[in-house]
Design brief:
The complex is a heterodimer of chains A (about 375) and B (about 1050). By secondary structure, chain A is an alpha+beta fold. Chain A has 10 helices and 13 strands. Helices cover about 25% and strands about 20% of the residues of chain A. The N terminus of chain A is likely disordered. Chain B is an alpha+beta fold and about 1050 residues long. Chain B has 6 domains: about 200 residues, 5'-nuclease (Rossmann fold); about 110 residues, OB fold (Dihydrolipoamide Acetyltransferase, E2P); about 80 residues, Beta Barrel (OB fold (Dihydrolipoamide Acetyltransferase, E2P)), CATH 2.40.50; about 280 residues, no CATH class; about 55 residues, no CATH class; about 110 residues, OB fold (Dihydrolipoamide Acetyltransferase, E2P), CATH 2.40.50. In chain B, the strands form 11 sheets. Chain B has a 5-stranded antiparallel beta sheet with strand order 11-10-9-12-13. A 5-stranded mixed barrel of chain B has the order 14-15-16-18-17. In chain B, strands 19-25-24-21-20 form a 5-stranded mixed beta sheet. In chain B, helix 2 crosses helix 3. Classes of the chains: A alpha+beta (about 375), B alpha+beta (about 1050). At the A-B interface, strand 1, strand 3 and helix 10 of A face strand 1, strand 2, strand 3 and helix 10 of B.
Chain lengths: ~375, ~1050
């Protein structure tokens, strides 16, 4: 039962035979130059189609389709809401008068619950573990990410306090953000990267009506949508496409697998199925920053280990026992027989993780490429 | 990583779909992004009669009819555009020159863009409504072009383009499209028709420049107008708001604080620190105003120019309560604007202490406390205007202050600024720039206010038109009608088309088979008569009474069946609903319904058969009602009596015919009913009414026309039965339409309204007024009698009436049933049913009653349209309440004017004979101020302010001219005792008892009434001057 649930929660992975798994593993773990089933380089992403502002009624929206046919749509809706004041802030809040010192209160710094996320995946109830888990994971990184802002040059647009802070209108009012994520296809592969990229794109295109009132007044907005302001402010110089034209960007989650010493991005369905040790990682823009790392249980663990010929009763005596060179797995201390599938056990080596992080964060690295690629979608 | 964007350019439909995106903030605080998709089409016609293309593509309605084309094929030309021209104004042009566009001398063939109309609606709702009605009229040929929906003229907003720029571009796009389109159509038509010029009118300099680049003819409003005939007059009609904004180089001294932003006001209103209400200026003191706000049960005072902060009577303002140390008691001074030259010092801005939230909250509590106590003498909460929700500006009738025209007035033609003094004393002087100052002096003129900037002491406005010479009957009557917003234009043709085609020859069908008899009872054999004021032409009601075999009586009230002639929702009905009521002026009647109906077909004239709506009761000899019945009927009135004649006939014992008997019975019942009503606690109220019979000859004393209304028994006879009918109908209609019945209520006045009067009575006369219920009030009013002074009781009643709220029409669903009560009549439910010829409410009630009794009309299907939706009814109620009030004001003002004129005529006659000594009368002191008193003169039904100089001190010649008297004021001094309501006037330095005059409240005084030409404000109105002689 639990196995079944886990399987479906990870993805609907193809059932590969131990022999196939073993073949894949061997080719992916070739030192320096792994061979991927679709011939990509380790850091190469599959082509995807992306567009933003596809739902006119929303504050921001995006659609991304991966080449494998999975598609997601995200719509962001913002509503003005009254901040429920605690008694101390009520006493000190003065209409139309200056700020006071209780900036630590939720009214000033925002609250994580102001972002609401719901994910709909075909075939799942909204209270199933997967949607709940996914949405919480994405929301957490969204509201948790606080950019220190203004790292480089013309820091005219900064977003102090991160998304939470951006949602504060004044002490008595705030925006509530509803992010609705809709996966249009069956979750063929692990859907989180797709959903995360789409959400990222939707948030980039999200605009909030321009505030006309000032200070502690009841909010009052400009009725011209054209002057609405981006939720994630942009710097004025759009021409600098090469540069990160945005200082603060919503985080994205990338799926990375490590096979042996190799780090492989954007794993395809088969690769995930195999997933020796996948890592989910959150990056945040500005100067790219790693928010968190999570490991996901590889579905290939569920495949029964193969039996080496030496142990196969049926094969007994059919082959020479000397051909079996038992290799000791350095991580697990287990015996490995080449060509014979055994689920990987244990964690990932530190050096591999370090390599992974470097690949993502370095100038011109994968992270930058992804974020720029998504931003490029914005250019009309 | 590659990302590809979906390409829309291959979609052929994409260019036909546009969308309009905006942000909407709802009242509840929600902010929504609204997206409207626009499906662009190509079949929206240009509506020019020149066009040969559009008639073939214009969409037709379900009957295959194409809307008639509006724009003339021979548009008027000007010097600049000899081939004729169509105008395309932009929003600013309309904002600044709406009066011009309404002018009948120019501005024909105008293309109004949907873009412009929408923009105008956002900027000014009144102007939007005026534009809509302009588009509706056929004469001016205004065409509403839906440019946003037409593919060729739809303009997509460019990146970084402001809405204004985009809209201006849309205007230009339409102009160039029209040019091209008409050109193409002329070519196709092969006839060498001259294509009219398309002229964009815009006051945006940038837009004019761009238009030049795009080869579109564009002119500013003033440029265009300069090219017209009579341009001087027209130029004066351009709004000053714009120019004031432009010419504001170095901002001068700022006299007034800025208004709060909308969001600040909303925050304050929600938090309860600010209040919203209508700004109401005191009629005695132009510097004092009050604002009634829902939070407190007494109005808040606003004192002085600084605090009223550019608000004008009628504006919807937001106010803030001032700190307690600035609370003041209401002024006890009479202050007229022109009397005060420069009393407002803009430098005397109080330095305002910063008040914290809590203090403000506490302040609101203090207001409540202070309001709870008795008001007399104590400082009252004051407030100041901090924001403006909605301006209540309208067009004002006034005249040019001759003193403000300056020396070059005679040389004329140069534009100069003058002050216009509005007739309404509550409205400040209006600064108007005009090129025709010389011509306008001595004229009644209509002006409007455009703006009131912070650096200007007075509002700025512009001239609209002249009504004629001051003091001429025509000009003054029109002025009056305009002031009270009475629709006095003749009925348009569409209304007259709704009248029966037979005209005056219309008759009740002879055979009962005729469909006109459907559902009607034949009451022609009843002895019905009508009793009305003498000379009444629109006879609404008639009565009868006859004994029944069982000893009871049948009493009937028959009301003109107006709803038979006025069908719901036709042009006549909507015109009547707008007019709301017939307005009676002294020498003129402004009808609600066309003459033919009001005075002939509906009027229950004697000796002819008429349709009626009858209410029939069976009553016992003690006037107990056994049953009541309603029916549509046909009646024949036997006689139309005047009150006097009916009274004579009843009193004449030699008359014993059935008709007279019937009237005697009616009289008997009416007396019983009246008694019952008083027993139930109905009030006998008084209003100072006089009647003027204007048709007397020229030779006699004009004042003989002025008569106080005599109350005969027959007056109350009719009144009682009308009340009874109204009450009976009200409960019937309410039974059938519990939500939508049109009723009339008179709210119980809050006791604090009476406080002042109660104080005054107990102080001066030791009398008590019990206001706990209408019955208690009625009986305590009865006890307020002064044997010395028979008029005293009436005076108290007049004063008590003024303390009450006014009765209002409402829709049954709008209030809970206990709130239906009519306080004055002490009836739990009431409506108006008995005067459908002159009141629209009655007409609606007729329709409701007809439907309630299942009357199916001529053609067998009941018509209850227009009476079954509450929203619509509430709109109607609001309008008729407003019209009703205005009609009363207009009537009173007309009488006042007439009295003034009669006094003037008399004065002139006397002057010819030697002296103008005025006329000596009795007056009663109604109010005492620090520097004058208000005196009521029952003989003429007028009240007037008696200022210091108008007291004739002992040993002084009474007859002095106004200017001589004015000199006196500075030499006089007063002792005013607000607690005792006494005022002593004496000459400075002469405090001897016998050299002064003492007056006190309620005192009977001898007055000398004469009409003087008033300078300043009321010019032409012939202020009635009252001198206290004793």
């Amino acid at each position: 039962m639990s196995n079944q649930r886990q399987a479906s929660s990870a993805s609907q992975t193809p059932h590969l035979s131990p022999a196939e798994l073993s073949y894949l593993y061997t080719s992916l773990s070739l030192p320096k130059s792994p061979i991927r089933p679709d011939g990509r380089s380790p850091t190469q992403f599959r082509p995807l189609t992306a567009e933003s502002n596809i739902l006119p009624g929303t504050n921001g929206s995006a659609r991304i389709g991966f080449a494998d046919g999975t598609q997601a749509i995200v719509g962001v809706k913002a509503e003005v809401e009254k901040t429920v004041l605690s008694t101390d802030t009520l006493a000190s809040s003065e209409v139309g008068e200056g700020e006071d010192s209780t900036s630590t209160s939720a009214a000033a710094s925002g609250h994580g619950s102001w972002v609401q996320m719901s994910i709909e995946i075909p075939g799942f109830r909204d209270d199933d573990a997967l949607p709940v888990f996914l949405s919480e994971m994405m929301r957490e990184s969204l509201v948790g990410s606080v950019a220190d802002g203004g790292g480089d040059g013309d820091g005219d647009v900064t977003m102090a306090g991160g998304l939470k802070g951006r949602l504060v209108i004044n002490k008595r009012w705030h925006w509530r953000l509803y992010i609705d994520v809709l996966l249009l296809s069956q979750p063929l592969s692990y859907p989180l990267p797709l959903l995360s990229l789409t959400t990222h794109l939707a948030l980039l295109s999200t605009k909030l009506p321009k505030l006309k009132s000032q200070g502690e007044e009841d909010p009052f907005f400009d009725d011209d949508w054209e002057v609405a302001e981006y939720l994630y402010p942009r710097s004025s110089n759009l021409k600098a496409a090469g540069n990160a034209s945005q200082h603060v960007r919503p985080p994205v989650t990338l799926l990375v697998i490590s096979v042996g010493e190799n780090v492989i991005f954007d794993p395809s369905r088969e690769e995930i199925a195999f997933l020796p040790s996948p890592l989910l990682r959150d990056t945040e823009a500005g100067n790219l920053k790693l928010l968190s790392i999570r490991t996901v249980d590889p579905p290939s663990r569920l495949t029964q280990p193969a039996v080496p010929n030496s142990e196969n009763v049926n094969m007994l005596g059919a082959t020479a026992p000397t051909e079996d060179i038992a290799v000791l797995n350095p991580a697990t201390g287990e015996e490995e027989v080449p060509g014979v599938w055994r689920p990987r056990r244990g964690g990932v080596k530190r050096s591999v993780i370090a390599n992974m992080i470097k690949t993502v964060l370095k100038k011109g690295g994968v992270g930058e490429e992804v974020l720029e690629g998504l931003e490029g979608v914005e250019v009309e | 990583m590659k990302s590809l964007r979906r390409d829309l350019s291959s979609n052929p439909q994409a260019s036909n779909v546009a969308s309009k995106v905006f942000v909407r903030s709802t009242k509840s605080g929600k902010v929504q992004k609204i997206v409207r998709e626009l499906y662009l089409r190509q079949d929206i016609p240009c509506s020019s009669k020149l066009c040969s293309l559009c008639p073939s593509i214009a969409p037709s309605d379900a009957n295959g009819n194409i809307a008639p084309f509006v724009l003339s094929d021979r548009p008027a030309g000007t010097k600049a555009f000899p081939r004729g021209h169509y105008l395309v104004p932009d929003t600013n042009a309309l904002l600044n020159g709406m009066d011009l566009f309404e002018h009948t001398g120019a501005f024909y063939d105008v293309i109004i863009l949907q873009t412009v109309l929408e923009e105008l609606r956002n900027q000014s709702l009144p102007l939007y409504n005026r534009l809509l009605s302009l588009i509706k009229t056929d004469e001016k040929r205004f065409y509403l072009f839906f440019n946003e929906f037409r593919l060729e003229t739809h303009v997509r907003r460019g990146p970084e383009e402001s809405i204004n720029d985009r809209n201006d571009r849309a205007v230009r796009a339409v102009a160039s499209w029209y040019e091209e389109h008409l050109g193409a159509s002329a070519k196709k038509g092969k006839k060498e028709k001259s294509v009219p010029a398309i002229v964009v009118i815009t006051d945006d300099k940038g837009s004019i420049k761009k238009a030049k680049a795009e080869k579109v003819t564009a002119l500013s409003l003033s440029e265009y107008v300069s090219g017209l005939e009579d341009s001087e007059k027209l130029l004066d009609m351009i709004s000053e708001a714009r120019e004031a904004r432009d010419s504001k180089g170095p901002i001068g001294q700022l006299f007034y604080p800025e208004y709060l932003s909308m969001s600040k006001m909303m925050t304050g209103l929600r938090a309860g620190n600010l209040h919203q209400g209508t700004f109401n200026v005191s009629p005695y003191n132009y510097l004092e105003a009050s604002v009634k706000v829902p939070a407190f049960n007494r109005p808040l005072l606003i004192l002085g120019r600084d605090n009223s902060n550019r608000a004008i009577s009628g504006d919807m303002v937001v106010i803030e309560v001032l700190p307690q140390d600035q609370w003041k008691s209401p002024s006890t001074k009479i202050v007229d604007e022109e009397a005060v030259t420069r009393n407002d010092n803009p430098d005397s801005e109080e330095t305002e202490a910063v008040v914290s939230q809590n203090e403000r909250k506490a302040l609101q509590e203090e207001v409540k406390k202070a309001h709870g106590k008795s008001s007399e003498g104590k400082p009252q909460p004051t407030a100041r205007v901090v924001g403006m929700i909605k301006r209540g500006w309208r067009q004002y009738v006034g005249h040019v202050d001759a003193g403000s025209t300056g020396s070059q007035a005679a040389s004329g033609r140069r534009q100069q600024t003058v002050f216009v003094l509005p007739m309404d004393k509550k409205v400040p002087k209006i600064r108007v720039r005009t090129r025709q100052a010389g011509d306008l002096i001595g004229q009644r003129i209509l002006v409007t206010i455009d703006t009131w900037e912070r650096d200007s002491r007075y509002p700025t406005g512009h001239f609209i038109r002249s009504l004629g010479e001051l003091e001429t009957k025509g000009a003054e009557t029109e002025a009056l009608l305009l002031e009270y917003d009475v629709q006095y234009k003749p009925f348009p043709k569409s209304v007259l088309d709704c009248l029966p085609s037979e005209g005056h020859d219309w008759k009740v069908p002879a055979t009962k088979e005729d469909k006109g008899w459907n559902g009607r009872r034949d009451l022609r054999d009843l002895l019905i008569c009508s009793i009305d004021p003498p000379g009444c032409q629109d006879i609404d009601d008639a009565l009868h009474a006859r004994p029944l075999p069982n000893g009871n009586f049948e009493v009937g009230v028959h009301i003109a069946d107006v709803s038979h002639f006025v069908k719901p929702n036709n042009a006549m009905d909507s015109e009547a609903s707008v007019r709301g009521t017939t307005v009676y002026l002294v020498d003129k009647r402004i009808d609600m319904l066309p003459h033919l109906l009001g005075t002939d077909l509906c009027s229950l004239k004697p000796y002819v058969e008429r349709y009626a709506f009858s209410v029939l009761w069976e009553v016992t000899p003690n006037a107990e009602i056994v049953k009541s019945d309603f029916t549509k009927s046909v009646i024949r009135s036997r006689e139309a009596f005047s009150y006097e004649r009916a009274q004579l006939r009843i009193d004449d014992p030699s008359q014993t015919d059935e008709l007279t008997e019937s009237m005697r019975n009616l009289l008997k019942f009416s007396k019983i009913l009246r008694q019952k009503r008083y027993d139930a606690g109905a009030l006998n109220l008084a209003s100072p009414e006089v009647r003027i019979e204007a048709d007397s000859d020229e030779v006699g004393d004009p004042l003989t026309d002025v008569k106080t209304k005599a109350m005969l028994d027959t007056n109350s006879l009719v009144e009682e039965f009308m009340l009874l009918a109204n009450i009976t109908v009200a409960s019937k209609v309410f039974d059938s339409f519990s939500q939508t019945a049109l009723l009339r209520r008179h709210a119980t006045p809050p006791p604090q309204n009476f406080e002042d009067l109660i104080n005054q009575l107990s102080k001066k006369r030791g009398m008590e007024l019990d206001v706990s219920s209408s019955g208690a009030l009625a009986s305590s009013l009865d006890r307020c009698v002064d044997p010395e002074n028979p008029f005293f009781n009436t005076l108290v009643r007049i004063l008590a009436t003024r303390c009450m709220t006014s009765a209002e029409y409402f829709c049954a669903g709008a209030h809970a049933e206990p709130e239906f009560r009519h306080y004055g009549l002490a009836s739990p439910i009431y409506t108006h049913f008995t005067s459908p010829i002159r009141r629209y409410a009655d007409l609606l009630v007729h329709r409701q009653l007809a439907s309630a009794i299942g009357y199916e009309g001529e053609d067998g299907h009941a018509v209850i349209e227009g009476v079954n939706t509450r929203g619509k009814l509430e709109d109607i109620c609001r309008n008729i309440n407003f019209r009703h009030r205005n009609a009363q004001f207009a009537g009173r003002a007309s009488i006042e004017y007439y009295v003034g004129q009669a006094l003037k005529a008399r004065g002139e006659k006397m002057a010819a004979g030697g002296t103008d000594s005025g006329i000596d009368e009795e007056g009663y002191v109604m109010r005492v101020f620090e520097n004058g008193v208000v005196v009521f003169v029952p003989r003429f039904g007028i009240e007037g302010v008696v200022r210091l100089e108008d007291f004739v001190l002992p040993g002084e010649a009474g007859s002095r001219s106004v200017s001589e008297r004015r000199e006196l004021a500075v030499h006089r001094t007063t002792h005013f005792d607000p607690r005792e309501y006494t005022l002593r006037v004496e000459e400075k330095g002469h405090s001897e008892k016998e050299r002064g005059v003492d007056v006190e409240l309620f005192q009977r005084v001898k007055v000398n009434v004469s009409s003087v030409k008033e300078e300043g404000r009321g010019a032409g109105k012939r202020r009635v001057r009252i001198l206290i002689t004793e």
